[in-house]
Design brief:
Number of strands: 0
Largest sheet: none
Low-confidence stretches: none
Number of domains: 1
Shape: globular
Distance between the termini: 34 Å
Helix content: over 70%
Radius of gyration: 18 Å
Order of helices and strands: HHHHHHHHHH
Strand content: under 5%
Oligomer: single chain
Number of helices: 10
């Protein structure tokens, strides 16, 4: 492996950790950066799993105490809610995931999704502007129907550039979740979605796992882990005090720039 390969892996890992839990689409950013630096497409699917795993480890470590408290209070119900929310993206991903990856994992579709997601954020923020009393202000108030509705919106993130966390957060806010509860639920949903999707991707691209590629995977994992630790802490504080409008504007601007460059 050349030094440049490790640099590319580090950049990809840092970007994954910084964007996985923000409503800006980590996959969309990785596609754009991967194309820009000519990242090895033969290992990209498995490499993405390694850096997503790094981000998930960071989330679990940072969120360990709160997660343990939630599980002690109502573990079976929480797991049930997460399972319900996972079903739509799991089902649609199994049926159409490979087709979507083959047809839409390119800059222009990503740009369109960026813009669509940005507009959705702004519309939902407008809908709840000035609202202080939410139908769901604590995770314990989430019902099975609420979980399913959020899961259906989350399934839109199969389109590259839509953002899994963004879809779950915006969907939750639209259906009456407070911004902080929607974010918390989105974080928890990330664990089963990324773990199961990762296992499936590894199964499909097992041939990419070679001893010579392991150093690249490790570098990506560590850089993603470190950047995610920082971003998760910052974002949890941010959503309690401010709106998500800045992310909506960011998505629209970036999507517009990408369209201008590639069309």
């Amino acid at each position: 492996m050349e030094t440049y390969d490790f640099l590319k892996a580090t950049l990809m890992g840092l970007l994954e950790g910084a964007t996985e839990f923000l409503p800006v689409s980590s996959t969309g950013h990785l596609i754009l950066l991967g194309d820009s630096v000519n990242f090895n497409r033969d290992i990209s699917a498995v490499f993405e799993i390694s850096i997503q795993t790094g981000a998930i480890f960071a989330l679990l470590i940072f969120y360990k105490r709160e997660l343990n408290e939630r599980l002690k209070v109502n573990s079976s119900n929480l797991f049930y809610l997460l399972a319900i929310s996972f079903v739509p993206i799991g089902l649609f991903g199994f049926l159409f995931g490979e087709f979507i990856m083959r047809v839409l994992f390119f800059p222009v579709p990503v740009a369109i999704s960026f813009i669509f997601g940005g507009v959705a954020i702004l519309l939902v923020e407008k809908k709840i502007k000035g609202k202080k009393d939410f139908a769901i202000s604590d995770l314990s108030e989430v019902s099975n129907v609420d979980a399913l509705k959020v899961g259906l919106v989350q399934a839109l993130s199969l389109f590259p550039g839509m953002s899994r966390s963004g879809a779950a957060i915006v969907g939750g806010m639209y259906f009456g979740f407070s911004r902080s509860v929607a974010t918390e639920f989105s974080f928890l949903l990330a664990v089963p979605v990324i773990v199961i999707a990762g296992a499936y991707s590894v199964f499909l691209d097992f041939q990419a796992i070679k001893i010579s590629n392991i150093p690249i995977f490790v570098v990506g994992f560590l850089s993603s882990f470190l950047s995610a630790l920082i971003v998760v802490k910052w974002f949890l504080v941010y959503v309690k005090r401010r709106t998500l409008k800045i992310f909506g504007y960011y998505r629209i601007i970036v999507g517009g720039i990408i369209l201008a460059l590639f069309i």
